[in-house]
Amino acid sequence: MVKELSLLLVLVLVAVALVLIGLGWRNRLRRQADIPALPETPVALGPALAEAEGQYVATTTAGDWLDRIAVHGLGLRTNAGLSVHREGVLFDRAGAGPLFIPVERLTGVRQESGMAGKFVEQDGLLVLSWMLGTRELDTGFRSRRAEDKTALLTVLNDLISAAPQAEAESGK
Q1: Whose CA is closest to 148, among 83, 79, 56, 52?
Q2: Does the pTM exceed 0.85?
Q3: Torsions phi, psi of 3, nearest 5?
Q4: 133-154 pLDDT, tens per residue?
């Protein structure tokens, strides 16, 4: 009798925890409803300057590695391919749809050791900073092979330094 009661209590606590997690995610989606739609992926992208397979970690508010962006599937961790093109960066995310960041919206790239619940060795994550509407966001990617990350970082730094920034184009 005591074992059955203990099991029932554990199951009720797990169910309550899952309901609270769901409510929290729903409220986060509601708070972030003002975030604009994602940029469309161009129909014809030029050849990839660099590419890698790995894991799309998440997108967060820039500078706040815990403030995960939930809308548009940006908060879902998934396997992904990352390809860098002259037009921008494409995350081909499994089960969450592609995320394309136009080159003029990219504001920076750096290496970090963690974000949004994913922690790895020092400088194990590639983090792209970019603008979506008026919000600056950080998007993390972990390549499967370390040498891919180095190549991506070099190409992205070159691309960002050569690209006109969105603020300059809008006259800000």
Answers
A1: 52
A2: no
A3: -65, -45
A4: 888 999 999 999 988 999 999 9
| Residue 33, CA distances (Å) to 28, 37, 41, 70, 73 in order | 9, 10, 21, 9, 12
Residue the block writes with tokens 């070159």: 158
Strand, coil or helix: 11: helix
pLDDT tens track for 83-118 = 999 999 999 999 888 999 999 999 999 998 878 777
Q: Which CATH class is domain 50-170?
A: mainly beta
Please state the φ and ψ torsions of residue 13, each to the nearest 5 degrees: -65, -40
- Where exactly are the structural domains of the chain? 1-31, 50-170
Distances from the Cα of 10 to the Cα of 6, 15, 19, 21, angstroms: 6, 9, 14, 16
**Backbone region of residue 73 per phi and psi (left: phi > 0; alpha: psi in -120 to 50; beta: other values):** left
Three-class DSSP category at 52: strand
Through-space distance between the first and last CA atoms of the chain, rounded to whole angstroms: 70
